Amino acid sequence: MKIRILGAHSSETEGQRMASLLVDGILALDAGGLTSSLSLLEQQKVRAILLTHHHFDHTRDLVTLGANGAVFPNPVDVYAFSHTLDIVNSCLLDGKMYADFSKWPSEEKPFLRLNAIEPFQRQNIQGYDVYPVPLQHAVPCLGFQVTSKDGKSLFYTGDTGPGLKECWQQVSPQLLMIEVSGINRSQDFLRSVGHLSAGLLKEELMQFRQIKGYLPRIIVIHIPPPFQKDVEQEVKEISRELGIDIDIGYEDMEITL
Ligand SMILES: [Zn+2]
Ligand SMILES: [Zn+2]
User: Fold this and answer.
1) Contact 121/133 with Cβ under 8 angstroms?
2) For 121-138, how does the pLDDT look when each residue is reduced to its tens digit (9 = 90+)?
């Protein structure tokens, strides 16, 4: 399994894109930085997109992918909570700001095919075993454990705050891609809106180790560009305290499992 980070941030600047990962070139997790990072040919190869939740930094490029879709040979399947799809439909693909690519070129055969999924309903998507698990964000959010045919597995949280005990009981990934969305000083605010600081992440990882008896490889993403340096420093501190390596994800980083 080859994972490429398309966007490792919660906002964007030159060279920093919004939340999005690509597995083996065909399965995207979130769509915040999908089209800004991929050539037209690479975009054509994306066959399915899993959306963790509806926030703009995770869904935005559905619109620009749709706009390029006129020349693509295949439709793209989008999977998410029905709540997420409802908001994407009414706000992002509303047919007012731009074309509604979930009804284009026709309602019968749209370019973006929206598929509702439920937590804990395991399903095969493009040959991967996908297991959605609910997280602790301000709005309904699913994390995805994606397992390849040869048993390699990744768990991607999308956005989450603390309180992941039940989630950890459900998953056993080799790679955990998890968010840190601010600095320790803002910990109370981050907790209240369903995000993690490095300090909060440390507590969650301690719990993971206690429940599962191991820690997977960990990569931190969803970093706010204005706090990049501080988050890097604070993640370094918790990795020292936990006695493990924690990587900071960056755009176009490739990980092979
Ligand atoms: Zn986000
Ligand atoms: Zn969010």
Assistant:
1) no
2) 999 999 999 999 999 999
Q: Which domains occur in the chain, in start order?
A: 2-256 (3.60.15.10)
Q: Mean pLDDT of all residues in the chain?
A: 97
At a CB cut-off of 8 Å and minimum separation 6, what does 61 contact?
Answer: 20, 31, 32, 33, 34, 35, 36
Which ligand has the shortest distance to the CA of 30? 1
Among the bound ligands, name the one nearest to the CA of residue 194.
2
118 in helix, strand or coil? coil
State in Å: Cα 71 to ligand 2 middle. Answer: 31
Ligand 2 geometric centre to CA of 193 (Å): 9
pLDDT of residue 70: 82
Q: Say what the pTM is.
A: 0.97
The closest ligand to the CA of 137 turns out to be 2
Q: How far is the CA of 76 from the centre of ligand 2 (A)?
A: 23
CA distances (Å), origin 162, targets 132, 155, 248: 18, 16, 19
